[in-house]
Amino acid sequence: MEDQDAKDINQMMSGTVEPTVKTPRKSKFVWVVLGCVVLGVGLGVVVYQQSIKSTVPKTTPKPTSITQQTSPITSPVTPEVSLVQPDSKTVSFPKAGKLRIYYKMPGWLSLGVELDDGVAEDSFVVPAGDPGTTMRVFDTGYELSKATTLTINSYLGSNSSQLSIGWIKPVANKCGANGFGLVDITADLAWATAQSQGEPVVSTQCWGDYSPNPNDTSSLDFNDYWIIWSYTPSSTSVSPSPSSVASSTPTPTPIPTASAISTPTPTPTLTPTPTPEASVRVVMPDTSEGTPVTGVFEVTVGTVSVGLALLVLGLFGLLAI
Questions:
Q1: Largest Cα–Cα distance of the chain, in whole Å?
Q2: Residue 180 lies in a domain
Q3: How confident is the model at residue 262 (pLDDT cuts 50, 70, 90)?
Q4: Which of 48, 84, 98, 321 could cross-link 232 (Cys pair, CB 3.0–4.6 Å)?
């Protein structure tokens, strides 16, 4: 009986078909997940490196400076100042007639005058005038028979061997030269012209006095005395010299007193208020030279986040296996 039961059991077991269980294909899925992990990490590294490179500012190479050879600067040559020298002592008188002079000179000295027509010499003494304040008139008595050229010399005082150095024409109605004082003789010229009564004013002369040394330039002042040559008119009446005649002594330029000099008021210096520096994050970065350095942190976080996201997806796949 027992044998029969065993046979029945064996027969029942042999007739039961066991279902086939399929083994999941884990090996291929694992490789796919690992590939996602590797790809995520690799992309993160690559993107991070590219972000670092992009943050380096582009530098433009500076052009090499060309050393220019400069020629040495030559010092300017100061030209020698040429002194005004006396004019020729010859004067051409245009017609016949008796000569007259209008003059002004130091009042304590007489004036000697020498005339040479190339044939004979003549001289006369002009009396001392008022002390350099009034024009005087002197009729020389020297008579010309025709138009004549005369050589004129003069001297102050009584020593005829000490001839004055010579004369120059006035410039802008002023006597004086070579840095010495200028004397305005405009009024003197007007007065002499009025006294000439139509006779020509032949020559106006600003004289410099005698100098014992030919190299001495102190006598080249040409403001010691002046002579105006003309002719004696038919009517010899002479008007008095005006009191407003310019003095032969140059008037010194007044020096302003300390009270007249205004001290400039110093202008207050305005101290500029320092402008507070703006935050680095507030100011818009300059992108003309690539990604600014101030954005390195943001770019790095973004790129690493991409890699971490891929890495998390890979790990989630491994856990789901």
A1: 203
A2: yes
A3: very low
A4: 98
Strands, E assignment, 145-184? 148-156, 166-168, 174-175, 183-184
Beta bridge pairs of residue 93: 148
Any domain includes 252: no
CATH of the domain at 94: 2.60.120
Nearest CA among 140, 144, 141 for reference residue 96: 144
Question: pLDDT digits over 41-66, tens only?
Answer: 677 677 667 766 665 555 555 555 55
In a domain, 46, yes or no: no
**Number of domain units in the chain:** 1
> Phi and psi of 47, rounded to 5°?
-65, -35
| Residue 135 belongs to a domain | yes
Ranges of beta strands (E only) in the chain are 90-93, 97-104, 111-116, 121-126, 136-144, 148-156, 166-168, 174-175, 183-184, 203-208, 225-231
For residues 189 and 174, give the distance between their C-alpha atoms in angstroms, rounded to a whole number: 10
Domain coverage including residue 177? 90-231
For residue 293, what is the DSSP state? G
